Amino acid sequence: MSPDGGVAVCPGSYDPVTNGHVDIIARAARVFDRVVVGVVDQPVRKSKTLFSAQERRAFLLQATQKVPNVEIDVFDTLLVDFARKHGARALVKGLRAISDFEYEFEMNQLNRKLAPDIESVYLMASPEYSFLSSSGVRELATFGADIKDLVPNGVAQALHDRLSRDSG
Ligand code: PNS
Asked: N or C: which terminal CB in the chain sees fewer CB atoms within 10 Å?
């Protein structure tokens, strides 16, 4: 697809999607004409995901159904190739704290090296989500904490079911 300045990709593992992710996606959708949420099939630097790519995609579909210019797609390629496939010229990432910066800076440099024509754009996390991460939510759920205010509808129950199944 030819590059279009109005298209952005929001990439991530989304294992699972949190309200913080949804906030970033919705804000990106107010800035760009079209936002493609890229769900990485299996992140290279992380251990095996708790949910399959199709499960993570389904949670995202449900969570973003009211945002018309958002679509969800799974990818198992380089991120910049995925962006090119969708004609995107921007990668949108959320930044929560300085601790995110080092990792994102490295990613930025690698992606820039591979594709200087694709720009990375960073949205600061909204204050109410600045502490929120998928790993934090998974940890809370492991110990039975109430996480329904932290994740979209359906995800809390799915997490609970998955973790109790895995430990059973
Ligand atoms: O939510 P995450 O785990 O921080 O997202 C990581 C993601 C999907 C952005 C990253 O793993 C990724 O870009 N994967 C695709 C492979 C790739 O392009 N790697 C080169 C950049 S280092």
From this structure: C
